[in-house]
């Protein structure tokens, strides 16, 4: 059999990373190599192909037309090799499915129902990584990610509450399934509900505002969107690192928190909270299930995706009916959510 005229295969991963990032430095970080090593790999590949793949600028690089064409071929080839390796490596023993997930959605929504998935899929061991940082699905730090944020290419209305969180480091090859909208709702102790009312059809809050650091725009954007105002007086304002901490502070009567309704519905002490103000204001972003295309054929991923999308549908349907029922009374109670 004649020898195949292939380029040096050890250079392809470095070239692929550099082409995706348009940076030798970021490619080196991804592959745990030096910037010089990536530069040498690309140079060796260009010599073997007798073709320039990148234009080197003073502070950046860009692909040549030949480089763009070759990058698509290399990316598809590496993805196919990865899928083939996964098919060969699968066994019938217990396999781990790693999920990177936001801390509060993990503790309040996923964990209470995760046993249903493991009972139906005893051969799959689920490992959760709690994080609000953008997930690097290309580096396979997790099989699946659950994040909240803006979907690229989706239109949002001016004035919707902002979500300043990036969901992934790169959207290349990532499939996104929407789980829930992000609808913010104020919540406080029932004894304080009279301090958050509608006056002239607009919300007026006379309580300390409880902020969550990962969503620092939530209160000001919600008040602006609803035409409301906050009169905090001498109580000041509070800030906590995660939504579940803000909910605990609200339950203790320390002020009024603003939290996505899907989290309020799952809060285990929700009977001790009131929703004094109606809200149908959708944030400029949603909760998503994120999977890289190289993982889509994995039976573990397929099983979890089907299960969680069904659970999300049930949660949305239950939330809509529960909120409608609770908003018919004043103040709105969460005890039936």
UniProtKB/TrEMBL annotation:
Q: Which Pfam families match?
A: HTH_1, LysR_substrate
Task: Mark the transmembrane ranges.
Answer: none
What name has this protein been given in UniProt? LysR family transcriptional regulator
Which residues are the signal sequence here? none
Q: Which UniProt keywords apply?
A: DNA-binding, Transcription, Transcription regulation
The record's section on PROSITE patterns has: HTH_LYSR
The UniProt similarity line reads: Belongs to the LysR transcriptional regulatory family.
The HTH lysR-type domain extends over 7-64
| Keyword NAD attached | no
Species per Swiss-Prot/TrEMBL record: Azospirillum endophyticum
InterPro entries from the UniProt entry: LysR-type_TF_proteobact-type, LysR_HTH_N, LysR_subst-bd, WH-like_DNA-bd_sf, WH_DNA-bd_sf
